[in-house]
Give the backbone structure.
Amino acid sequence: MTYIVTDACIACKYTDCVEVCPVDCFYEGENFLVIHPDECIDCGVCEPECPVEAIKPDTEDDPDGKWLALNTKFADIWPNITLIKPAPSDADAKANETDKFDKYFSEKPGEGD
């Protein structure tokens, strides 16, 4: 098992989770974070830090493996992030939206640390 970041993070990108990760396995996209599944040690300390509950075990809420594949792909492309950054200015407004992937997901990398 590994932890993955899911749809709820898209367009919110709260980074509270990255500072508690003991192995620095978060990677930053323009409007989304991912966890590198080969680096994650399954400790779970990041999960309660996410204000929108976007971090889940890969065995939960991912029956077709979409989010595990997405986390895997972009963790190899995007820069590492280990420090908290301000959320986008409209994050709170988008926090309760669902099905954000098709509306907002960007493959562009973030800035990293």
Summary: The chain has a mean pLDDT of 95. The beta strands are 3-5, 26-28, 33-35, 55-57.
